[in-house]
Amino acid sequence: MTTTAARKRDLLSLADLSPTELERLLAAARHLKAQPRGELLAGKTLALLFEKPSLRTRLSFEVAMAQQGGRALYFSPAEVGLGQREPVRDVARVVSRMVDAVAVRTHEQEKLLEFARFASIPVINALSVREHPCQGLADLLTIQERFGRLAGLRLAYIGDGNNVATSLMLGAATLGMQVVLACPPGYEPPAELLALARARAAAAGGMVTLCHQPEEAARGAAVLYTDVWTSMGQEAEAEQRRRVFAGFTLTRQLVALAQPTAIVMHDLPAHRGEEIEDEVIEGPHSVVFDQAENRLHAQKALLIALLNPASSFLQPE
Ligand code: CP
Ligand code: NVA
Questions:
Q1: pTM
Q2: Is residue 136 within 8 Å of 168, Cβ to Cβ?
Q3: What residue's CA is closest to ligand 2, atom 7?
């Protein structure tokens, strides 16, 4: 995780975690899934500052805190006014004086980075334009619990190289998966994060490849993953994106090209009939609700690692 000061760590990108840290967090999440309740966050308060709507992220953070004796305080898009009602740096410093950690969902990446620079408490990226690391943690947990491992598995991501795709790619590469992304030209993940993922994959015995054909990615895959074509904040581009992404729907035909035991993943909310067929998301390969549930277990492990060093799963390597 990003160290912005000696006393705190942030999770802004999934690449902030070393392979060992990532494995430890996943192990902790598995443990917490079996034993969800305790006092490991007793007396701790988490603030949720969201500039965009949320079901899963808000719910999982709030429930995670409550199940371990802590509490969460949610601030809606209307209340936050990050950079509008007052400067980001002032919000960061005020919040740091009253709570133990903060999860921030912003429009602009720069707002998240500025918030993290000025906060003296751990800052968790609860979805930004570039990444969705908490989703990535839950995704890896879901794949691991289905297959008993991650390294060597072929993961096909089909669609927009967006925040969800980027975090998934970074996490999967860090743990040695064979990642194949099929994106329309111009809609790939950011080049520097692709390069970082490739370096991580090389170190872990995995690989990251890009193509433009969904069939090429899906063939032989253990995991098929897709996300919306139009992310929050891109609504003005929706029509154009529907045209660009035509042919990138996760269909039954694509599922038939994957391994017989393949799983189908989507972070939700889903747009049936656009990036995924209704029959696929409702079909026997789909694990989307396990994935949603795993947000709770993965984020609880993260919160405990950040807020309860005595039981930290993130010991120095
Ligand atoms: N997958 C996810 O982050 O969902 P929300 O936007 O509902 O939190
Ligand atoms: N890529 C989507 C994910 C929503 C959880 C978005 O940013 O809107």
A1: 0.96
A2: yes
A3: 231
